[in-house]
Design brief:
The chain is globular. The longest helix has 14 residues. It is built from 14 helices and 9 strands. The protein has a 9-stranded mixed sheet with strand order 1-9-8-7-6-4-5-3-2, sandwiched between helices. With 324 residues, the chain is α/β, with parallel strands linked by helices.
Length: 324
Amino acid sequence: MTILIPNDDAADAAVRFDPETFWSRFQHGTMAVGDVRLHYVEGGEAGSLPPVLLLPGWPQSWYAWRLVMPMLAASGRRVIAMDPRGMGDSGRPSGGYDMQAAAAEVHGFIAALDLTSNGAIDVVGHDLGTWIGYAHAVDWPGDVRRLAVMDAALPGITPPPPPGIPSTEANLKTWHFAFNRLLDLPEVLIPGRERAFLTWLFATKAVKGWRIDPAALDEYVRVLAAPGALRAALAYYRAAFSPVGLVEAQARAKRTLAMPVLALGAETGVGDMLLETMRLVAADVRGGTLADCGHYMPEERPATVAGALIRFLSSDATLETRTP
């Protein structure tokens, strides 16, 4: 049964990124955690409400959250969008891309910024950020008051698709999982073609592809073309789907999450798959599917995503849903 999250079409369409206004409210920062310097963008007020940590997905960066961040900050939150190692403008070491290391690094980042000085914080992940956010919540549950995850399958936990040749639709959604795991070939084919690669990827996986405008494409091309960035991005997939990575994920799934979890899929993305996956590993799960939305939810439906997060992260959260 698909649970559709109502969209606010007018509000979503009205959201625009105004750099001058944004940078008057937010600022860049870096923090050394272990062997890597992590980049982040933060803003909002440190008040009585817990901070919100945002984790982006592949092949993006903190910038994927730029439309959502002002709305979260306006709700009274300190908002921090972090580039995990190898992503955006963070450092790109040669190793450390398994989920245990990524989760520990998020914990170290939270500690370095003293984000839990007044208690646990709220963590939100999209795509690869969902992998990292979930692993961090399991490995460091004391850090996380509430967890929100968006449009991803969890390697080693989400049930695999049925055997056989995938449909054209399924192939367009999932081809990169096998491709990104290949040794050497992506590094041969993509360098120098980052713009063509990302243009095709965004057009294929988005419903509202125009929301990733030329300025956004320029930013994502910049960070993917940076020295070491492609190698680092691929390393997450190679580690997560390795025999060791899958065994570690299955062991992690045996530790049930106790904090409230919000799981949101996109109608042309994973749909309710993420919601059903989180019900396997967490005790208190709600969520559903954003209608008329592709994979890049924070950009395609920014007001709808922000509204769902603000309602969920409130102390007595309820999420309005409808069933077709």
